[in-house]
Amino acid sequence: MRTAIVGGLITALALVLLVSPAAGRQNPSVAAAQVALRSHGLYSGSIDGVNGSDTIAALRRFQRRSGLKPTGVLDRRTREALGVLGKPLVGTRTIGLGSRGWDVSVLEFELARHGFAPGKIDGRFDRLTLGAAERFRSFSGLPYHCLVAPSTLKAVQRAKPPRAAVQLERPVRGRVVQKFGIRGDQLHAGIAIDAPYGQGVAAAADGRVVWADEVPGLGLVVRIAHRGGVQSVYGHLSRIDVKVAQEVVRGAWLGLVGRTGNAAKPRLYFELRVRGAAVDPLPALR
Fold it and tell me: Are 14 and 141 within one domain?
């Protein structure tokens, strides 16, 4: 069995304490604390790295339960009480398949935040985490051995969220009922648009069909490659009306809205990727 090592993907972080919340500001150490608190059944919010009131309240509950002073500050004794997911600090070991801990949580959060879904953000380095790390390597043009170097996290931190180099038309008209981003402990890499069953789905831009088949969870799916390394994905279709390698123009008919896969009701799943990284498609849609 191939064992992939990812060490130095995380360098040492300065933040050791949970401090006053900064509205909307994400911090990977806060995300790791949320993962650990969730494992103890004390935090049920999203692993979003935002040090809000729910996170601080969960930390205080944990401290009281552990016989510690409920300061809401993540000190050394609190980290030790958190157990395996409270340590080790990032940058202190090499991590790979089977590793668990605080540093793995930070890695998973950073990958998800940059559009590379690692499965659950749960502090467990499994094959989904490995796949996300490899996709980031490919995205960044880094040779595989660079995943063990401290420079890899710096590359993640320096990387600006990619933006689509194309202007997109809405594939269907309807209300966005699920947005892009981390919800719970997973990255939701696309959006869901409410639309009636059987409504036509249009190509968001000119391109070439590279997938037209079923995908677990998403049901019937069409994926289109556009210029600039951009791909758009259309899921939960009831019917596919295009073939792989077919050239399509903006507005071309791709299929019909459905509820295939895990859709509870008719809707279109729409995803946008730039060189493999999932990005929020809403800013690119007209």
Answer: yes
